[in-house]
Write a structure and sequence with these properties.
- The complex is a heterodimer of chains A (106) and B (166).
- Chain A is mostly helical.
- In chain A, 67% of the residues lie in helices and 11% in strands.
- Chain A contains five helices and two strands, in the order H-H-H-H-E-E-H.
- In chain A, a hairpin with a 2-residue loop joins strand 1 and strand 2.
- Chain A starts with a helix and ends with a helix.
- Chain B is built from four helices and eight strands.
- The C terminus of chain B is likely disordered.
- Classes of the chains: A mainly alpha (106), B alpha+beta (166).
- Chains A and B meet through helix 5 of A and strand 1, strand 2, helix 1, helix 2 and helix 3 of B.
Chain lengths: 106, 166
C-alpha cells in the first residue's frame, strides 16, 4: 500500500522517530524505549513510515534495524517550493491589484 | 511563472517559522489597504486557480476574517483569522486556523506577524508565520494546493504542446 508522505510526517511521534533514526539505524525496541507508548504503537508508526518508503528495514542477525531513506525526505523539501509558489502567485496578483489601485487614485 | 520582484522565502524548521519578505512598488497606505480590506484581499489572496471568498471581515483587535479558498470545482476550504494586534499602516498580528463551514476552528493554527515599512515610495512587507505544528502546513497540501498547482502546470504544458504543433 502506497501512502502519502505528508501523512507520515503529520504525526508528532512519527516525526520524533524520523529524527531518532536519522542519526543511526535502530531496532524497534530501542526506538520504543524513547517513547512513553507501547511497543505496538511504535510498530504501527514504523509500519506507516515503511509504507511511505520513508524508512527502510535491514536484517542484522536476529534483529531488524530501521533507518531513514534520505532521498525520500527530499520530497518534503518540495513542499517548501510548493508553498513558495503559492506566495509568488499571490504576490503577482497583488502587484496587479496595486497597479490598478494606483491608476484609480490618480 | 512570471515573477519580476524579489520574494524572500525562508522556512526555518527549528523555530517552526516561515518568513516571507516582498517589496512592492506602491506606498505603504496602498499596500496596507490591500492587506486589510476584504474587497481588495479577495482579488489577490487565493493563488490561481483558486478564488478567495471573504464571508466576514471585521478588521479590529478581537475581530476576525472568515473566508474560503474556493477550488475550480467549487470546493470550499474555510479559514478563520483572528486579529490579535493592530498598529495602523505598520503592523498587525493574527491567529490563522483552518475551520469548517460553520466557523468551528480546527487546530492547530499558526501565528502571523505582518510588518509594513516604506522606503522611497516602495513598501516592504515581512510576514512571519509561526506554526505550533507542522501538521497545519501539511493540511494546505491536503486541501489541494498541490493538486491545484500540478493541474495548472499540466494545463500550461498541454497548451504549449498544442501551440508548438501549429
Amino acid at each position: 500500500m502506497r501512502r502519502d508522505i505528508y501523512q507520515a510526517i503529520a504525526d508528532p511521534t512519527r516525526r520524533a522517530i524520523i529524527t531518532l533514526i536519522a542519526l543511526q539505524a535502530m531496532t524497534p525496541n530501542a526506538i520504543a524505549d524513547n517513547f512513553n507508548t507501547t511497543r505496538q504503537a511504535v510498530s504501527k508508526h514504523l509500519r506507516i513510515l515503511t509504507e511511505c518508503e520513508l524508512v527502510k528495514q535491514e536484517q542484522q542477525g536476529r534483529e531488524i534495524y530501521y533507518s531513514l531513506e534520505f532521498e525520500k525526505m527530499k520530497e518534503i523539501e518540495k513542499w517548501t517550493n510548493q508553498l513558495r509558489k503559492i506566495w509568488e502567485s499571490r504576490f503577482d496578483q497583488l502587484n496587479q491589484v496595486l497597479s490598478t489601485m494606483k491608476k484609480q487614485r490618480k | 511563472m512570471k515573477n519580476n520582484s524579489q520574494l524572500d522565502f525562508i522556512v526555518d524548521k527549528t523555530t517552526k517559522t516561515v518568513s516571507i519578505t516582498m517589496e512592492f512598488a506602491a506606498d505603504r497606505a496602498l499596500v496596507w489597504d490591500a492587506f486589510t480590506k476584504p474587497e481588495i484581499l479577495d482579488q489577490w489572496y487565493a493563488p490561481k486557480p483558486y478564488t478567495s471568498k471573504t464571508k466576514v471581515m471585521d478588521f479590529k483587535v478581537g475581530g476576525r476574517r472568515f473566508y474560503a479558498m474556493v477550488s475550480p470545482d467549487g470546493q470550499e476550504g474555510w479559514i478563520l483569522q483572528k486579529y490579535t494586534s493592530i498598529t495602523p499602516k505598520t503592523n498587525f498580528k493574527m491567529f490563522n486556523v483552518f475551520a469548517d463551514k460553520d466557523e468551528n476552528p480546527q487546530p492547530p493554527g499558526s501565528d502571523w506577524d505582518l510588518n509594513f515599512t516604506e522606503q522611497n515610495g516602495r513598501t516592504k512587507v515581512n510576514i512571519s508565520i509561526y506554526n505550533e505544528s507542522l501538521a497545519r502546513l501539511e493540511r494546505m497540501i491536503e486541501m489541494g494546493f498541490k493538486e491545484g498547482y500540478a493541474m495548472q502546470v499540466k494545463n500550461l504544458e498541454e497548451l504549449l504542446a498544442t501551440l508548438s504543433q501549429k
